[in-house]
Design goal:
Layout lengths: L5 H6 L5 H4 E2 L6 E2 L1 H4 L4 E7 L2 E4 L3 E16 L2 E6 L11 E4 L4 E18 L7 E3 L5 E5 L6 E7 L9 E7 L4 E8 L12 E8 L6 E7 L4 E7 L4 E4 L3 E6 L5 E8 L8 E2 L6 H4 L15
Antiparallel strand pairs: 1-17, 2-3, 3-8, 4-8, 5-6, 5-7, 5-8, 7-9, 10-11, 11-12, 12-19, 13-18, 13-20, 14-17, 14-19, 15-16, 15-18
């Protein structure tokens, strides 16, 4: 487990690099309790296992391999990509208060994304051809967004997207935040970034900053690192020559992904109208 209450310390102005960036091998699972926030949980499991959703709705997203999931007398098979860079995602949404069993059919790495909720809904299998691909930005800020659990999805709080950023490109750009309740332009969302690279030496740069909270961190992130984003503007840049993947899990009280750009960089979006999109994107398709 990660140590301490990172988001709570951050809110008091005492956050440091080790509180928010969890390096590969130094964490096993994020929960609302050990992150110090209200809703969001995240972990990665390997092989077969049994578990229960408890008070959270969850999305099971195979990062590699294939599995069978059994719950409430139903069974689903999902997955099949050898890595996140070799196929579109599958996902299985399971409601709260559900016991389930995952059986590994091919060597399996499975992201377990969760959010505390009140209502119990129905399971939903998300197949690759149902995942919307969005090519966002332009020039060297072009990236691919795969919308797995969108705001329109029949969940209470959980939102899940995966993002592919070609080497040398910027992503989550312009820097944006979602830490104030000002709908429809911005809502409060807890968020995690889980990074994957295709090569062990690859890295990216991640900035997380909040003038309001006196926070400004610029971090080197690598394969299987995890970033907690309790508040603040954030943006990412992939190292030249190395494509970057990250899985975003978000949760809040409003079913929205509305975010506010840093006003200093607001001019960037109109500038994209005059730029071509990076022809490398989309990086992954059906």
């Amino acid at each position: 487990m990660l140590g301490g209450h990172a988001a709570a310390r951050a809110a008091r102005g005492g956050a440091g690099l080790s509180d928010l960036l969890l390096k590969d091998g130094a964490w096993t699972q994020v929960t609302p309790e050990n992150a110090g926030w209200r809703h969001l949980s995240f972990g990665v499991r390997r092989g077969s296992f049994s578990a229960a959703t408890g008070e959270a709705e969850i999305a099971l997203v195979p990062l590699a391999g294939r599995c069978r999931v059994e719950a409430n007398g139903e069974s689903w098979e999902l997955g099949g990509r050898a890595s996140v860079f070799e196929g579109m995602p599958w996902a299985l949404y399971l409601p709260r208060d559900t016991a389930y069993r995952v059986e590994e059919l091919e060597p399996l790495e499975l992201a377990v994304c969760g959010a505390r909720c009140e209502r119990r809904r129905e399971p939903v299998l998300v197949e690759p051809d149902a995942v919307e691909i969005e090519v966002r930005g332009a020039g060297n800020a072009t990236r691919q967004i795969n919308h797995i659990l969108k705001p329109e999805f029949p969940a209470e709080r959980l939102l899940v997207v995966e993002v592919f950023t070609p080497g040398g490109n910027w992503s989550s750009y312009p820097p944006h935040k979602h830490d104030e309740d000002r709908p429809p332009g911005e809502v409060v969302l807890e968020e995690t970034y889980y990074y994957r690279t295709a090569h062990p030496e690859a890295f990216a740069l991640q900035r997380l900053y909040s003038p309001r909270h006196g926070l400004d961190l610029t971090m080197t992130v690598a394969h299987r690192d995890l970033l907690l984003v309790p508040f603040g503007y954030h943006t990412t840049c992939a190292a030249h020559g190395y494509d970057l993947y990250y899985l975003n899990t978000l949760a809040g009280d409003r079913r929205s992904m509305a975010a506010a750009d840093d006003p200093a960089f607001a001019w960037v979006r109109p500038a994209w109208e005059h730029l071509e999109k990076d022809p490398r994107v989309p990086l992954v398709t059906l």
